[in-house]
Amino acid sequence: MTDRELMIMAEDARKRSYSPYSGFAVGAALLTQEGKVYTGCNIENASFSPTCCAERVAFFTAVSAGERKFEKIAIVGGKANVSLSAPCPPCGVCRQVMSEFCDGDFTLLLGTPDDIHSYTLADILPLSFELK
Ligand code: THU
């Protein structure tokens, strides 16, 4: 699985975004250490707060399937029906969820399949909350 292929899977997941309130569509493709991919899209709600981000949908789908070891995630997002341009970094809540299951070297791919920006979780979440 190349980074470009993972980004394309995130783009495909984004097509299934349910985002009638924000008009902002996000897709994510999460690669496990064993090479399996779990995707997610953002799913909004009329009551707003039940909305779930694409990244958390991907993580929770994977974890509920028994996965615990992750290598990287591709994330794409932007206004629905507009072609992707700027990177869409994950929100703080999703970063914290990633930190529950991933070490600092977990990789995030942002941008577009033709313009991939790579970060580590340590880059984007230097001081995660831990219960200790
Ligand atoms: N969203 C995500 O899916 N991931 C993020 O990391 C940030 C925001 C979604 C939530 C909501 O449906 C829309 O983008 C606008 O905030």
What's the layout of helices and strands?
Layout: H1 3-14, E1 24-32, E2 37-41, H2 54-64, E3 70-79, H3 92-101, E4 107-112, E5 115-120, H4 121-124
Residues 19, 22, 24, 26, 42, 44, 51, 53-55, 90-91, 94 line the site of tetrahydrodeoxyuridine (THU).
Write up this protein.
This protein is an alpha+beta fold and about 130 residues long. The protein contains four helices and five strands. It has helices spanning about 5-15, 55-65, 90-100, 120-125; strands at about 25-30, 35-40, 70-80, 105-110, 115-120. A five-stranded mixed β-sheet has the order 2-1-3-4-5, sandwiched between helices. The longest helix has 12 residues, at about 5-15. The radius of gyration is 14 Å and the shape is globular. It starts with a helix and ends in an 8-residue tail after the last helix. The model has no long low-confidence stretch (mean pLDDT about 95). Bound molecules: tetrahydrodeoxyuridine. Tetrahydrodeoxyuridine (THU) binds near residues 42, 51, 55 and 91.
Biggest sheet, strands in spatial order?
2-1-3-4-5
Please state the CA-atom Rg, rounded to the nearest Å: 14 Å
Give the cofactors and ligands.
Answer: tetrahydrodeoxyuridine
Uncertain parts: none
Biggest sheet descriptor: 5 strands, mixed
Average predicted confidence as pLDDT: 97
Q: Helix coverage percent of residues?
A: 25-40%
Labels describing this entry:
binds tetrahydrodeoxyuridine, alpha+beta, 5-stranded mixed β-sheet
Question: What would you say about this model in short?
Answer:
The protein is of the alpha+beta class. The chain is built from four helices and five strands; from the N terminus they run αββαβαββα.
